[in-house]
Amino acid sequence: MHAVTKWLKEADPDVVCLQEIKAMTENFPFMEIEALGYNIEILGQKSYNGVAILSKRPFDEISKGLPGDETDEQARYIEAVIAGENGPFRVATIYLPNGNPAPGPKYDYKLDWMDRLKVHAKGLLKFEEPIVLAGDYNVIPEEKDVYAPKEWLTEALFLPQTRSKFREILNLGYTEAFEQMDGRAGQYTFWDYQRGAWQNNEGIRIDHLLLSPQAADKIVNFEIHKATRDGIKPSDHVPVVGIFDL
DNA sequence: ATGGTCGCGTAGCGA
């Protein structure tokens, strides 16, 4: 919470998508975050997963859970329509399954989840509105997005099937904000707690903003807030930020 | 090849 509130005050974002809340809804610190001016929507889960959307502007619609499997109990998806100054826009917070070890049931679940996301993301394009699908995708898109590609070849985050499924979603008509605005090699968003990964800059780029065409038209800047990886009790992920002229 | 670090919840799992 120290890291979160410090960043919220400094960056002052209009909308925030959080993943890995690791708490049931009733245990989320509503008061502290509402005090900073945010409306809050939570999909909580005990111990694992859990996602949230914070917004300074009001929510018009909310749907919780990724469609396509009524039996899926894991809290990994919230979608919101937010009332912008010049019309509505849509935001989803996504915590895509890690999938390790691969192969195995966890990797099967990851690929199934990505299939469901693809179907849903395709349907959303019909709205022809600004959409940002934001979150921890647990996908390293390309070799340039990992410090040592050869060491990651058998990891669920970098397997060819994972990367091609991610590409299939992009090829529906979504744009990665990072690729449109920057695209350089070695721009990481996650550094493991182990083995001095941060100190040695052994990172991976797995946190992404996927934009509908109408959102891609309106993006004016993209930032990776690396500084948050330092400091007291940091997350192993850092914020990725899109700035839009909506 | 191994062990290395976190949070949750109070052992061991998931990352």
Percent helix, as a range, is 10-25%
Terminus-to-terminus distance:
30 Å
Kindly provide the name of the CATH class. Answer: Alpha Beta
CATH superfamily: Endonuclease/exonuclease/phosphatase
Broad shape: globular
SS summary, helix count: 6
Order of helices and strands: HEHEEEEEHEHEHEEEHEE
Tell me the structural class.
alpha+beta
Query: Strand portion, in percent?
Result: 25-35%
Question: What is the topology, as strand order, of the major beta sheet?
Answer: 4-5-6-7-11-8
Number of strands: 13
The main sheet comes to: 6 strands, mixed
CATH architectural category? 4-Layer Sandwich
**Uncertain runs:** none
CATH topology: Deoxyribonuclease I, Chain A
Sum this structure up briefly.
The protein is α+β, with helices and mostly antiparallel strands and 246 residues long. The chain has 6 helices and 13 strands.
Describe the protein.
With 246 residues, the chain is an alpha+beta fold. It has one domain: Deoxyribonuclease I, Chain A. It has six helices and 13 strands. The model has no long low-confidence stretch (mean pLDDT 97). The protein binds one DNA strand of 15 nucleotides through loops.
What are its keywords?
Deoxyribonuclease I, Chain A; single chain; six-stranded mixed beta sheet; alpha+beta; three-stranded antiparallel beta sheet; 246 residues; DNA-binding
